[in-house]
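Structure ticket #2291
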Amino acid sequence: MDKQLIKNILKSPVSLSSRKYLKNYIKEKKMNSMKLIMAMVVKNEEDLIEKNIRFHCAMGVDGVIVTSHNSTDSTNEILEKLKQEGLVLEIIYKSSPLHEHHVWVNQMVKIARKKYKADWILNADADEFYYSKDLNLKKSIYKYSSMGYNVIWVDSIFSFPEDDCKDLENKLFITGFIPDFQREIILKNKDIPFYTRKLKASCPKVIHTTRDFKSATDGNHWVKMYKHRQVESININLYHYNCRNYKSYEAKAKRWMETSRLLPDKKCPEKHIISLYESGKLKEHYDKEYSKEVLSVMINCGAVTTDKSVADFLKYKKIID
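Resolution: structure written out below.
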């Protein structure tokens, strides 16, 4: 519809319903013209990478730029297949001995902005799924964009492992805090190996514009912007399947071990888990950390709840059976 024609109609004495229709039409057109690109750094993610990319593209992402760092499983073959389908726009292969996450993210943002004319960037790991309550990430982001925000802060919701579930069919998530008085009662019961790190902790990720972008930090937990204008999201959830079952827990420990060798010692936050893996005590730790007793306590306290949003959407889009 011609822009001048729209202006003339809005100025003319048309009905209220016609005005509302035109305003919605303009809003929809602006939203659909917004370019949303996802940037990812991956290594050996063959079990999740395809589901992740298909999920986000079904949720409104226009395309994905991926940096694959020394992947040795079928991750690269999967990415090439998705590139042929047009879901992956670009694959950047890195063979560097160093793990320079923020450098690679900055590179992908610049490519997204200059080559693909992206307006917004969504940064994700292979086990992170951004779920829009509008079932359209563009629609959710546009609400904040239209108010002048250039950074959307999204907190992580961590999964609680279920060894009897297929990947991404997990329904248990750590969504709440345990009050101090309840924690004291729990910790007095020595039969329950309760760990304070099970309490919901803040682990934000950011969605941001390309226009005001300066640089990203490791892990995409923060971003430097020109005229930083941030808002906390209320219509986007970030489901982080950091621990789906023991198999994924062990695989992540192995990746952490490999990556830790490429980082300065002070920058490796998972030294304890790596030590357990190397000493052969990881399974024992996992069985205590995620026991049925611990789960029962957390459910009763309201710290763990059931949420099947991601799994249901994946099934609805026929990405998983």
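Closing remark: The domain at 35-159+201-242+307-316 is CATH 3.90.550.10 (Spore Coat Polysaccharide Biosynthesis Protein SpsA; Chain A).
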